[in-house]
Design brief:
Oligomer: single chain
Number of strands: 0
Shape: globular
Radius of gyration: 18 Å
Length: 237
């Protein structure tokens, strides 16, 4: 959380000195890098242990089913709309900037940064490892990466990125607590399912940053729960 806040502060100071076209270019560059990160996560589809547990053709079907079912659930729950509502409320409370464009950038920064920082495999594996008492090395690496990414994000999207630290604290804190009680029994194949499905969601974030499509990635978040559940069920069968 501290890395995100510090990185965002640096990014806002640097970004305020840049013209709008440069900040837009930074956002597009971030979108390209996010797509690369997504591809690395989707590569979990080829994880040998996952394939051994569910079969060679099942991983992609698990991801497909999870995204579709998760999308239906998330859409009915209006998760994306609620995230944007939280971002709008935070902008009203903490930002001095006014105007439609400033509000849009703040909300976009909060929502997109929160999703990206919370979906990645290091967020899940690092928190679980911490809960299991195996050290914070993965979380330390994630903190460094998040801090650097926050600089670029905030340079383009402003202070909304800093407040994504709240979402990160809630999500990773919850995962750490779960790791204390459940981490030892979480199968590697279930983690691969979360990673690959998360990669698909991260592709959506990249497309949003590139202004190619406004995919409601927040509505797809239930897929991260459904994917490991389907994997465990198929493994038991």
């Amino acid at each position: 959380m501290a890395a995100i806040v510090i990185g965002s502060g640096i990014g806002v100071i640097a970004g305020s000195r840049l013209p709008d076209r440069t900040r837009d270019l930074i956002s597009q560059a971030l979108g390209l890098v996010v797509l690369v990160v997504a591809a690395l996560n989707v590569a979990a589809l080829f994880d040998a242990e996952w394939i051994d547990d569910v079969g060679s053709s099942a991983p992609i079907l698990i991801v497909l089913a999870s995204v579709v079912i998760g999308g239906v659930i998330g859409s009915l729950l209006r998760i994306e709309q609620r995230l944007e509502g939280i971002g709008g409320w935070l902008q009203t409370r903490f930002s001095r900037s006014s105007g439609t464009e400033a509000r849009r950038r703040f909300i976009e920064g909060f929502v997109d940064a929160s999703l990206l920082f919370c979906i990645g495999p290091l967020a899940i594996l690092g928190a679980l490892s911490d809960g299991l008492g195996e050290g914070i090395e993965q979380l330390a690496l994630k903190s460094t990466l998040d801090g650097v990414a926050s600089i670029a994000f905030a340079a383009s999207l402003g202070w909304g990125v800093a407040l994504s630290a709240i979402a990160v604290g809630i999500v990773q804190g919850t995962l750490t607590i779960l790791g204390v009680f459940l981490g030892a029994v979480v199968a590697a194949s279930a983690v691969s399912a979360i990673t690959a499905t998360g990669g698909v969601l991260i592709i959506g974030i990249g497309l949003r940053l590139l202004r190619i499509s406004t995919i409601a990635v927040g509505d797809l978040l239930p897929a991260l729960v459904i994917a490991p559940v389907i994997t465990v069920v198929l493994t038991l069968l």
